[in-house]
Amino acid sequence: MQSLVERYGCIAGYPDSTFRGKQATSRYEFAAGLNACLDKINEIISAGLADKVSKEDLATLQKLQEEFAAELATLRGRVDALDAKTAKLEAQQFSTTTKLFGQAIFGLQGRANNTASIFGAGVKNVPDNGTNINFGASVQLSLLTQFDNRSVLLTGLQVGNISTGATGISSLNNSFTRLAYETNTNNSVILSDLTYRFLAGDRFAVIVGPAGVNPITVFRGANRYESAGQGAISAFAQRNPILGIGNTTGGLGFDWQISDRISFQAVYSANAPANTSGNGGLFGGGFTTGAQLVVTPVNALDIALYYLRSYSSNSPFGSLGTGIGDDIIAFPPTSPAQVNTDAFGSTINWQISPKLNLGGWIGFTSSTVAALTGSVQTFNWMSYLTFPDLFGEGNLAGLYVGQLPKITSSDLSDSSNIPNLFNSNPITLGSLGGQNVSTTQVELFYRQRLSNNISVTPGLIFLFNPGNRAGSDTITIGVLRTTFTF
């Protein structure tokens, strides 16, 4: 056998490219090597090179075949069974080019009874009517079609029935209590992503599509644990809210890896790119454009700086479109409101050790409203600690403390300012100023991995001065999130 291997090169080691010369060989391993030599010599003969194989070697092969006939038969039987299974899988597979993966989140959530003070002392103790414990699900399916090693088509489908919002006057708190996985499509399937992504160079990637193109999907996230199903439980703690400004969906973006430690991303995204009339189309209605620079001075530190310019024209009120914190910034006399916003922000994440991350962000917006003089400014910040693999591999604990977006200054004309509408008594519309208190959020969660595909996350959120309004009760939110990935 050794002489055959040396002359015909029919064995190149084990599948892991090692030879294990000091390890004893079993009869089945020897038979596998013999089978490889049989195949190699058959190839030589089939190629018309029979004269390259000596009669002595053929005789040796025949003797070895007789000696190891039982083992060879067993190996060939296993190979035949494997071939049959492979043929069955190929016949039944979904696609040779498309892979299906997804995430299903089941959420059990509720918040304690509380009352809000709205319009200053004019309307006090307004009960929160959204405190029932509720149970729902959010499912995301993704189809990844790879055309070659430089281009893919991503199709995303989403369906959900989770809604924690209140109604009536108490609904003013909804943008402060929203959860990360809260998706309500009334159990109808919607298209959440349809993007074509390709490499235009070794360091330059492009994304284009009618759905799923916005700063959130184009910009690289410095926070390494940003996920509705696996990360923080509140919408605010997912990422800097200004990255969702304009609530846009379709357009064009790119990601340029300038050097090993510096990258640059940019995006243009429209709010209603499919609409042909009114405030729609790729350039006829609301849009968001922006850029981000990411620097990694050392492996453990990521720093992201970003700027966004947004135009909104389809909201009856002056809205930023983020759905978080002080999202409505004006009550203009005409509707819909046309709002121009400049947003600036930065996110930092420092991996102190494999078991500890420290990070946070700040975000600032400045907006003007058409037909009004003056401007409105908002500010938010967040700091967090995350503890990967706490008490077990795949687990994650998190502590987040921050201030939700707050109107810090407003001097719009024509009695359109928001802060005084909610905080003064008597109501003095049009007065200059900002919110007189800040909403502070404290969030704690612990993700327990039950298996490679299942995790359970209990969590608590405390909101102090919710709605950026003085006199309102602290809101306590409890969550039990179960996430299935496949």
Write a structural description.
The chain is built from 7 helices and 20 strands. It has 486 residues and is α+β, with helices and mostly antiparallel strands. A 16-stranded antiparallel barrel has the order 1-4-5-6-7-8-9-10-11-14-15-16-17-18-19-20. A two-stranded antiparallel sheet has the order 2-3. It starts with a helix and ends with a strand.
Question: Secondary-structure map with pairings?
Answer:
Layout: H1 2-8, H2 27-46, H3 55-67, H4 69-92, E1 98-111, E2 115-118, E3 123-127, E4 134-148, E5 151-160, H5 174-177, E6 190-201, E7 204-211, H6 215-218, E8 250-259, E9 262-270, E10 287-298, E11 301-315, E12 318-319, E13 328-330, E14 337-353, E15 356-369, E16 376-388, E17 396-410, H7 419-423, E18 440-449, E19 454-464, E20 475-485
Antiparallel strand pairs: 1-4, 1-20, 2-3, 4-5, 5-6, 6-7, 7-8, 8-9, 9-10, 10-11, 11-14, 12-13, 14-15, 15-16, 16-17, 17-18, 18-19, 19-20
Main features:
single chain, 486 residues, alpha+beta, 16-stranded antiparallel β-barrel, two-stranded antiparallel ribbon
Helix percent reads 10-25%
Total helical segments: 7
N/C terminus separation: 47 Å
Q: Outline, from the CA principal axes?
A: elongated
What proportion of the residues form beta strands (DSSP E)? 35-45%
Radius of gyration: 31 Å
Run of helices and strands = HHHHEEEEEHEEHEEEEEEEEEEHEEE
Can you give me a brief rundown of this structure?
The protein has 486 residues and is an alpha+beta fold. It has helices at residues 2-8, 27-46, 55-67, 69-92, 174-177, 215-218, 419-423; strands at 98-111, 115-118, 123-127, 134-148, 151-160, 190-201, 204-211, 250-259, 262-270, 287-298, 301-315, 318-319, 328-330, 337-353, 356-369, 376-388, 396-410, 440-449, 454-464, 475-485.
